[in-house]
Amino acid sequence: MPIVNSSGQLTLEQALAMVNELMLAKMGRHLSDPETTLLEGTWNNDDYQTIAEGTSYTANYLKGFVAPRLWNIIAAIVGTGKKVTKTNLRSFLEYLYQKEYSNCSDGGVSEDYSAIERLKINGEPPDVSIFFGRSQELSHIKDLTNDYKLLSLIGIAGVGKTALAAKFLNQISSSCNAQFERLIWKSVAHAPTVQELVNDLIQVVQDTESPSTLLEYTQVNITSLLQALQSRRCLIVLDGIDTFQTTNFEQRLDYRLFFRRLIEEQHQSFFIVTSRALPLDFKTLSRAKRPLQYIKIKGLDSESAMKLLLANGLTGNKKCRELIEMYYGHPAELQSVVERINYYFAGSTEAFFHNKTTFISPEMQSVLDEIFSQELNEAEHRIMLCLASCTTDNQTLVSFNKLLNNFPPILNKEISISELIESLECLENLSLIDTFRDPQSKELYLCLQPVIKKYIFIKFLGITTTSEDLQTISLAS
Ligand SMILES: Nc1ncnc2c1ncn2[C@@H]1O[C@H](COP(=O)(O)OP(=O)(O)O)[C@@H](O)[C@H]1O
Ligand SMILES: [Mg+2]
């Protein structure tokens, strides 16, 4: 059956296929039978009574139960803030189709929506069928692929770096202009040596099974890889490059050289690397106008975080917003708190706020343990403690001047301003603190996320209960 009618307008079949796919991508499910019935009838401008005729649903059920939910979901997917109603549904869907697919069909609607051939992804990226927001980041990344060779996505654990890289790979895989010949996903969380990584990449890029022609000299192999990346334009994600930064010295140097060569030598491919902190050298290379960029990933914007909460079954708009603010839109922490609200408070955000506490997910707890025990020096450690004690229950901002005035000497030695500033930069790079400038006073403020503040309270200051944290069940995790 042709999907497009002769006038080139969006057809019902096309609209249904589109809503179905978006529903699966955003809500993790297909359209139900009554939803499909409702969409078909509404498309034909039938009233509820007519739509219900010949089906097993009543008009009241379709009107009172199915319709309000479906309109809300479609409005959330479109995300313009406009309300969807039975009357404006059709124009909404036409707008949505143009928005989502216009780049594939020269602005027309003649492309068979479901027939776009996907470019296969080599490797195992995580499932991103439920993914909200980040449209600005995604289009920014797309722009960067034209002029840069490497993009570094940095941000605190669980903020969504891996998900964003996977979503981008997915988008490229289903987009219709063949910008890349190969899409490669490689997790490097197990800290392979550069030699192992390069050998793996050469095989995938060249599509060969055995590494028999490879030599034992890493630099020679990197040269072969660069040649392969020059003859074939690839998009390669290296996910989780943190580990090599803290492993042995030799491996750190090997990686530094590897990345330098990827950035400075000739090839036409694009790398995305994800890590908690910006790798050594990257800032310097970026300042030196090398073809390298980095993006600091923050929590989800409030609308997208709200969709995440609703998709996870929470209700109570106002309280959900408070929850989003409390966790800075951090998706993994929000998911973790939602699981607990569902389990302990039967999904009621109100009941949770009655017993308000800041949860720390076990994953965040172990990442913070690692950072505090292995990555921070004495001064950085002290700054974190000082910031936590300077904040109050409702206030997580501390002015730079206040920190200066309250900072205790280390081993009876005053810390120099330059040392303090360097430490703050390092903490910001690790996403342990954020900085804000007051637009009026121009004063610089440092901000500690409630989750990190709570971690410091429990771990180092021996405080398990504050006035906002009357419940301490979070310690059970
Ligand atoms: N934009 C998003 N929409 C929905 N869920 C998300 C989004 N970003 C991240 N998540 C979820 O949050 C969790 C942590 O994300 P992940 O990408 O693994 O974080 P990171 O790589 O920064 O540690 C995952 O369960 C992921 O599915
Ligand atoms: Mg990750």
Automatic annotation (TrEMBL):
Pfam families: HTH_VMAP-M9 (PF26355), NB-ARC (PF00931). This is NACHT domain-containing protein. It comes from the Bacteria. Gene3D superfamilies: P-loop containing nucleotide triphosphate hydrolases. Residues 11-94 form the vWA-MoxR associated protein N-terminal HTH domain. Residues 145-276 form the NB-ARC domain.
